[in-house]
Amino acid sequence: MTSLVLTSALVTGCGGNNAANSPAGTAQPGGAASSGLKPYEVVMVFPDAPQNDSQRVQDAMNDYLKKTYPEMNMTVKLNPIDWGAWSDKTNLMMASGDKMDLLFTADWLGFQQQVTKGGLLPLDELLAKYGPDIEAVEKDYHGPAKRGGKLYGIHTHQELGGAQGVYLNKELVDKYNFDLTALKSGKVEELEPMLQTIKENEPGITPLVAPSFPLEAYYSSTNLDSIVSIAAINTVGTAADDYTVINSYTTPRYMELAKLTNKWYKAGYINKDALTPGLDAWKKIQAGKGFAFVSDMDIIADMEIGTAAVSPNGSIKAGREMLQVPLNIDRLQTGKMTATMYAIAKLR
């Protein structure tokens, strides 16, 4: 909510997105008249599957804004777009000049193309005038979102660091009394004996549920500081001041993991539909059809590489108790600073 309010201050102060664009009949919060601001509806566009309680969330946000920031005289309209339709629909909305005040963006979700096509507003002058609170929190993290010296996105302060590793179905770990201490090596290869056991003894359960390239999160976060697409800086075995940009696909570790993935796929450890666009691996876990899943981890107290703990959010997503075992502890990286941002769409 804080990020929304701070960024919304930029929206309401933006000359390109002025109050004339506000739909007729927008409710005027009590006490707003003294601010001199006309009513304004902030349209917030983000990728998400349909949610049954979206209206309740929107109502709660607007109630909060009305009570806490009446002088802003604004309401919020949530406009979630399904993941599968995101690229096509947002590209069309930008091309046609549809109203998009706050737009979720990321380096992995078309941020560079949006800037190149002129679809986003530069935020530097708006921040200087309306965003002192944003600057107080984010001033050290703007660099990665700058293009041509101008800032086009505000980091949501979500991914300052993290961990990647493997989620495991606790019921199956307990059933086969799997020894997880081997994972203290931080090597995903140590999963193989467990995957083999599941394959041989649990028909109908995929040992390693995978979308697309299943080890990408584990590989890239452990080895690389990603810049854009396949361009990255190798952080393994290089000096701290070595900023040589490489092709991530040419590193030895990538080849090792690519061969490992191919081996596991041929052995039947990985689901055959792993390359299906938009595949939601968690749904397979929810349905009780998966054992392990390589991904970003929940951030919990006293995390250590190779140490298993019950995952709070992972268990909620899976609808069953899940263990998480970090295989690396992440650090602040360029790619993380552009992984979750909000921008202001530029009206035509």
What structural keywords apply?
348 residues; 15 strands; five-stranded mixed beta sheet; globular; single chain; alpha+beta
How many E strands?
A: 15
Overall geometry comes to globular
Can you give the helix content as a percent range? Answer: 25-40%
Poorly predicted runs are 13-33
Oligomer: single chain
Order of helices and strands: HEHEHEHHHEEEEHHEHEEEHHEEHEHE
Mean pLDDT across residues:
81
Q: Strand order across the biggest sheet?
A: 2-1-3-15-6
| Strand fraction | 15-25%
Total number of helices: 13
Distance between the termini: 28 Å
Secondary structure layout:
Elements: H1 2-12, E1 40-47, H2 54-68, E2 74-81, H3 86-96, E3 102-105, H4 111-116, H5 124-130, H6 132-138, E4 146-147, E5 150-151, E6 154-155, E7 163-169, H7 170-175, H8 192-201, E8 206-209, H9 216-223, E9 224-228, E10 231-234, E11 245-247, H10 252-266, H11 281-286, E12 290-296, E13 309-310, H12 312-318, E14 322-329, H13 334-337, E15 341-344
Parallel strand pairs: 1-2, 1-3, 8-12
Antiparallel strand pairs: 3-15, 4-5, 6-15, 7-12, 7-14, 9-10, 10-11, 13-14
Helix pairs in contact: 5-6
Tell me about this structure.
The protein has 348 residues and is α+β, with helices and mostly antiparallel strands. 32% of the residues lie in helices and 20% in strands. It has 13 helices and 15 strands. The protein has helices at 2-12, 54-68, 86-96, 111-116, 124-130, 132-138, 170-175, 192-201, 216-223, 252-266, 281-286, 312-318, 334-337, and strands at residues 40-47, 74-81, 102-105, 146-147, 150-151, 154-155, 163-169, 206-209, 224-228, 231-234, 245-247, 290-296, 309-310, 322-329, 341-344. The strands form four sheets. The protein has a five-stranded mixed β-sheet with strand order 2-1-3-15-6. It has a five-stranded mixed β-sheet with strand order 8-12-7-14-13. Helix 5 (124-130) packs across helix 6 (132-138). The chain is globular and about 70 Å long. The two termini are 28 Å apart. Mean pLDDT is 81; it is low at 13-33.
